[in-house]
Amino acid sequence: MVVLALTQSGRRRAREVTNSGADSTFLASLIENGPSSLEEISTDLHIPQRQVSTIAGRLSRQGLIKREE
Prior knowledge:
By secondary structure, the protein is α+β, with helices and mostly antiparallel strands. The chain is built from 4 helices and 3 strands, in the order E-H-H-E-H-H-E. Strands 2-1-3 form a 3-stranded antiparallel sheet.
């Protein structure tokens, strides 16, 4: 199972992310719930896993989150 977690940089910068409401909501979920799977985030945010995966990829490339196996 892949688990998504905030990086140290992500924790500091999470409040600054304003390029998308979805990105901010995604980061807020990780702040509130800690490391979570794609399925858990999808359920929490009521959005499809495919969209969660897309957001996770974007945030990962920005260095805000990391994927752990």
